[in-house]
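User: I need a structural model of ATP-dependent RNA helicase SUPV3L1, mitochondrial from Antrostomus carolinensis for a docking pre-check later this week. Nothing fancy, just the predicted structure tokens so I can convert them on my end. Input:
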Amino acid sequence: LSAGEVLKNLNKFYKRKEIQRLGAENGLDARLFHQAFISFRKYIMESSSVSADLHIILNDICCDAGKVCLLGHVDDLFPFFLRHAKQIFPMLDCMDDLRKISDLRLPPNWYPDARAIQRKIIFHAGPTNSGKTYHAIQRFLSAKSGIYCGPLKLLAHEIFQKSNDANVPCDLVTGEERVYANEDARQAPHIACTIEMCSTNTPYEVAVIDEIQMIRDPARGWAWTRALLGLCAEEIHICGEAAAIDLVTELMYTTGEEVEVRNYERLTPLAVLDYALESLDNLRPGDCIVCFSKNDIYSVSRQIEARGLECAVIYGSLPPGTKLEQAKKFNDPDDPCKILVATDAIGMGLNLCIKRIIFNSIVKPSVNEKGEKEIDSITTSQALQIAGRAGRYGSSFKQGEVTTMHRGDLMQLKEILSEPVRPVKAAGLHPTPEQIEMFAYHLPDATLSNLIDIFVSLSQVDGLYFVCNIDDFKFLADMIQHIPLNLRSRYVFCTAPLNRKEPFVCTTLLKFARQFSRNEPLTFDWLCRHTKWPLAAPKNIKELVHLEAVHDVFDLYLWLSYRFMDMFPDAVLVRDIQKKLDDIIQVGVCNITKLIRASQSTVAPGTAEVVSEDFPLSRTKRDTRVVPDRHGAKSTEALSIAVEVPGERRAKNLKAYRSGTRQEDLKSHGRGSLANRLLREGLLTQEMLRQLESEWQDQHRNGRYGFGSKRNDQNSSKEMGKKKK
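Assistant: Understood. Predicted structure tokens for ATP-dependent RNA helicase SUPV3L1, mitochondrial:
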């Protein structure tokens, strides 16, 4: 056979629309079809021989090419192509079964217990501080039995306390904790839980689902969908933004249930001010400055305390106990702390007596669907959620106010707040462990990460649903793939709630999985050795961040202990030391400005060590006065602590910073953390350090960095000449 003729006909086969359609009918989407064809073409072109029947077909096609009456046609290659495709993609043999398993078009049918009863659905719709959740909770408390499902441990804990204070026995259930109202550990008729932990098998009189708009959340939306469709309660009370009404009504139409909507208005007025704060000198008691990064939190709190004012600090990675203590400190009228610096973590879960919300910036870092980091303006929903915390009903402030730090951001904030909230279009779904187990039965050699990929690629959803982001799940699946675990255990480890940007926590999960696979219990002593417990109070920001990571490790242990009790047996002891660690972190947060100053002194004079949300500690100039502009851009020379400066002065300060940087860097050269490390390791002596500093200063006096003499210039010119030649 002519190789050229064979190749030409193979390419003709690949381009045929009819062949592509047949491929799709047999489970080969465009990507798989292309990969299968490349492999099939390589097999034919590079094999020394092919099967007799395939050779005959190729011969007929090549010999009859261009003739009117064809004995062979390129379409005749399809059976051979499909046979080859099934060898490299085994799933094609069971594609019909896999498609049935991954058919997600009728989620209501997954919950037969809920479909067996006629539920009454009541939607409490309104903005923050409108009393919508209050009315739902009153019905929860008056019922014979009930379940509250919230997005945060703090919210579940608040309802747990409120219920028991009202003499309504209520248990607390979160991923890491079980607290019983009854001393004999009998289950109470009421439960307050985080939404992922709700039971869809237990019957209740009343269920409350809080913050229903989170059903669209790319990562956690599936939990709200599961609760909405699956809870077995006579009455379901839904609380959240009006933007979710249409979606909930459509979802309930598919279950044959009607939705009663109760609208609420804000209980106290909220005013957008006509002027920006512009300077921290203009702060007043009851002010809350909202930042969207830890760097800004550290910077702003440091500047506030430099003015002789006390401030409380709240951000997402703080333990719940520390957040509550900081909120209590800010709310206490007898405490001198009257200013709060916080991230958008205050948007839900904390009751705060705030008079005025001040947006330090209106741009927020986020991660898109491809996992790329982006900086974009906050959405209307986010802005309203945060701004609505001002002027809480029942507090000492009868009216809330909202503004920005910088004058240039104020007009854009007004535009954002005036826009209608985008309606919630779809509800999240996530593959269940049972579905993944059925996939594994058909594809026993596939990794868990591959099983998830195949599931998502084959899944079918209608317009009311979407498949949630599985990147975190796949990250953990790939991380522990080499560890021998059964599929169910592997699945549980991959659903562990951790931040994959925290290396210490990820490493700990890996060690947990490895020891679990060896059937060796993870004891309290082992955990203490791993975390180096007991730990001292933090001396700088880096140590505070590490303590927060250790707290997350304790959370991870407790989360696993409720799923593998025999392998993580010391939950009580771990909870005790976690409470002690919470107290240590509280001390650190109360002294946060001292930690920042200590961080500066440990790096070098004139520099500060600052923690970024996504990167390790980075060094930055102590007197830098550069902030992100309204589009989020930063100067490449100022990886800040970002010190707020009114817009018109930014350029002037940046110029002053650039002119002063070199001289101060030269003075501090040799005294930074690299020099200290070299001294400790014995690679550098004090005498050598003094000599290096002296030489550096001599070079600086000659007006150059590293080329301090004419001779050096000549040498460099000679080298350049050689390169040119």
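Before docking, keep this in mind: Residues 61 and 72 are 5 Å apart (CA to CA).
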